[in-house]
Design goal:
Length: 283
Amino acid sequence: MELRTLRYFVAVAEELHFGRAAARLHMSQPPLSRAIKQLEAGLGASLFDRSSAGVTLTPAGAVLLDEARALLDRADRARVRVAAAAGAAVLTVGILGDSADPRVTRLAGAYRRRHPRAEIRVREADLTDPTCGLRAGLVDVALTRGPFDETGLSVRELRADPVGALLRADDQLARRDSLKLADLAGRRWFLFPEGTDPLWQSYWNGGERREGPVVRAVQECRQAVLWNGTVGMALLDHEPVEGLAVVPLSDMPPSRVVVAWNRGDPHPLVRSFIEAATDAYLG
């Protein structure tokens, strides 16, 4: 199994939609579908159940997802260590969720103009690590969202986005113009895995201890709501998929977009990234 194919598989498994996975990977859908079929043939196992209702992971696919994430994580660690040993002009950027944000596109263009010879590596993180691998040494700088434990890190806020309750479209509460957290009392919420940063978990659970299905990726959050009728939170400016709705939460603070890096005098490429991010979001 090639690492590239595993990245393709993880994208489809997290999005549970070939079209969205292809867009995330910046490729067309046919070669992505072919790569997944070749992977299934090589493993001798079906990884996805495909139907008119959508795409779901088979038991074999769920096992491979855990293994693939671990393998890709190790590969990323190896690249970081080798690049550091070689002294190459490489910057590894961790991104959480908003890689399709127009300001990220603007930031990428501006940074490339600043450093045309530098190699920029992007590591897309799931929802279990808001530092996007910064603490683990997998990235040099993170474009992410707060709140999270900032011990040993420097953080600069770039934008604040309002949030709302993510509900099934046929939920009675979805008809309301706005909600308060008390309106969601007693409902099951999607949760992040055990060991996730407590501040991050608490924010996305409205500051309360909740019960519900465990998720790791944005698409898993949506599917938890769609299939189980659980609730959670989502950004108001993100268009919900068919069958879901987002209702403003009047008593929830906004979700902060931040750039984070290891505290102390950062590498020149990191300092330049912080400046470019500030210009892209606040300039």
